[in-house]
Amino acid sequence: MSTTSTTSSTTNARGSGWRTVDLVTTAVLGVVVGVLFVAWTYAAVGPTTALGGVFAPLGALMTAPWFLGGVLGGLIIRKPGAALAVELVATIVELLMISRWGMLGVGSGLVQGLGAELAFALTRYRSSSLGTAALAGLLSGLFAGVYELFVYVQAYTPAFKAAHVGLTALGGIVLAGVLGWLLVRALASAGALRAFPVGAQAREARLATPRG
Predict the structure, then answer these.
(1) Which of 101, 141, 177, 212 could form a disulfide with 168 if both were Cys (CB 3.0 to 4.6 A apart)?
(2) Count of CB atoms within 10 A of residue 114's CB?
(3) Single pTM value for the model
């Protein structure tokens, strides 16, 4: 493939219109992430309890992997609504599989997805950089932390509530933003995302690297 055709493909994929591959990937990614959410629901119990025993709001750090849907959807698909859609699909899959959180969990998915969506909207859906991923994780954490003040940790003191929101945001940066970016970068480098801008950019980078 020539540089011109690769650039054209990247430009077309970056447009605002949704392609069939975008819709299918959103659905598949949402289901996969939803299954991961279920696994994390059980895996996080021990660490959350241990951290909470040291300082109650510290357990908020362990909520960050639930923000991955929005981060991954935005980084890979880069279309308006993708981050929100993947996060919501994942949350609904989790609800159908274990229904531990009920509709409160769907509410969490909605606000988390909106946080990530805002981050990608600020870049006009043109960036899959580490900075954008970190911002998506941060905003997902902020939105989720504030939401949880009203549904999960109402009994916290004002100082604990502030710590809860801050730690949720911090976890979002590291465990959703940075981790999500590393996952997408690995997939793109492996050639699994050729249909998307991030995959085309990874290919261009490989072609531009001098071979010894």
Answers:
(1) 141
(2) 19
(3) 0.90
pLDDT one-digit tens code per residue, 125-164: 999 999 999 999 999 999 999 999 999 999 999 999 999 9
Residue among 53, 50, 15, 33 at smallest CA distance from 184: 33
Tokens 């009920």 locate to 102
Long-range contacts of 98-107 (CB under 8 A, 24+ apart): 98/38, 98/41, 100/41, 104/151, 104/152, 107/147, 107/151
Helices H, strands E: what count in the chain? Answer: 10, 0
Contact between residue 75 and residue 96 where contact means Cβ atoms under 8 Å apart: no
**Which spans in 78-157 are helix H?**
82-98, 102-122, 130-151
Q: Shortest CA distance to 73 belongs to which of 50, 89, 52? A: 89
Size (the chain), residues:
212
CA angle 4, 5, 9 (to 5 degrees): 120
Any idea what DSSP says for residue 111?
H
* Residues 162/169, Cβ–Cβ less than 8 Å: no
102: left (phi over 0), alpha (psi -120 to 50) or beta: left
Q: How far apart are CA 132 and CA 128, in angstroms?
A: 6
CA distance 121 to 24: 21
